[in-house]
Amino acid sequence: MAGERDGADPRQLVQLVFGSMAAQTLRAATRMRVVELIGDKERTAAEVAAEAGARPEGMIRLLRALAGLGVVEERAPGTFAVTPVGALLDSGRPGNVAALVLAMADPTMLRGWEHLDEAVRTGEPTFDTVFGTDFFGHLREHPEESVRFNAAMSQSTRATATTLPRAFDFARFRTIADIGGGDGTLLSAVLMEHPGLTGIIYDTEEGVAQAPATLERHGLTERCSTVAGDFFRSAPEGADLYLLKSIVHDWSDERAVTILSNCRAVLPPDGRVLILEHVLPEAVDPEAPGFAYLSDLNMLVNLGGRERTRADFDELCGRAGLAVVSVTPLGAPNPLSMIEVAAA
């Protein structure tokens, strides 16, 4: 084989191809609450199995696989403790990623990936072919999956919410409209950091359903309103900063231009649009994590969207009558960048 002749080690590819099995291992552990059951103590596999309603011989195999992934460690034969990274699967722990694991490893998210080659050939999402409807249409028809997906999106937004309020000069503005703002996690964080601002959360009826509870929990009901609508038809008037986090990448260029054009239509002369997305380099950095490129393929397979380069954003915004002013990374551990956009 070529790998043997040139000295390449095939174990890297073997490890990669086992990645889907690793994801399902994390999903099973999260569904069975393995990390919560172990807690801060050392527990035997038999003890965890008894509380999880599982057979001991099956549980020890799961726990040893988790140990191989660094989620737990086997302190003595058959006895396990949770590692710091594994603790992030505890749904009750601040900053946990349990909902994100459940959503991203869910069969609904992965079925379209079975036909990735077809999506690459055609440039069209395969989710629609597999399920007979588009991704968000499927969520509307399956409320339990919609709840799970929204929880995952809120969870992924929390990392941005801890960074963004002090990373951008919000003091220049009066009212922020969070387009596709969901349950208000991100906008609430900004408003709490900047008490002189007011806000608007704009999303579908399903999208904003949890927002009033978020606003009430943070004491923001007097400073922030919720508006149900369709960002393909319009954007709410009355704001001078329009915030779009992880919205543009969901859609094709044509549909993304529609969203941005609707923001441009209501943007005051001194207003701005702030886009929070991955910004891909013009060429792949071999030292950088490949997550953004997997996200790009996920957008292709499930939604028909894409991750974009700076040049892509320049072109996209230009078609919407906007111009990119600056692109600034949010900074580790957040992989997103802030793309500040003004009227062209």
Automatic annotation (TrEMBL):
<keyword id="KW-0949">S-adenosyl-L-methionine</keyword>
<dbReference type="InterPro" id="IPR012967">
    <property type="entry name" value="COMT_dimerisation"/>
</dbReference>
<dbReference type="GO" id="GO:0046983">
    <property type="term" value="F:protein dimerization activity"/>
</dbReference>
<dbReference type="InterPro" id="IPR036390">
    <property type="entry name" value="WH_DNA-bd_sf"/>
</dbReference>
<keyword id="KW-0489">Methyltransferase</keyword>
<feature type="domain" description="O-methyltransferase dimerisation">
    <location>
        <begin position="15"/>
        <end position="89"/>
    </location>
</feature>
<feature type="domain" description="O-methyltransferase C-terminal">
    <location>
        <begin position="113"/>
        <end position="322"/>
    </location>
</feature>
<dbReference type="Pfam" id="PF08100">
    <property type="entry name" value="Dimerisation"/>
</dbReference>
<dbReference type="InterPro" id="IPR036388">
    <property type="entry name" value="WH-like_DNA-bd_sf"/>
</dbReference>
<dbReference type="InterPro" id="IPR016461">
    <property type="entry name" value="COMT-like"/>
</dbReference>
<keyword id="KW-0808">Transferase</keyword>
<dbReference type="InterPro" id="IPR029063">
    <property type="entry name" value="SAM-dependent_MTases_sf"/>
</dbReference>
<dbReference type="Pfam" id="PF00891">
    <property type="entry name" value="Methyltransf_2"/>
</dbReference>
<dbReference type="GO" id="GO:0032259">
    <property type="term" value="P:methylation"/>
</dbReference>
<feature type="active site" description="Proton acceptor">
    <location>
        <position position="249"/>
    </location>
</feature>
<dbReference type="InterPro" id="IPR001077">
    <property type="entry name" value="COMT_C"/>
</dbReference>
<dbReference type="GO" id="GO:0008171">
    <property type="term" value="F:O-methyltransferase activity"/>
</dbReference>
<protein>
    <submittedName>
        <fullName>O-methyltransferase, family 2</fullName>
    </submittedName>
</protein>
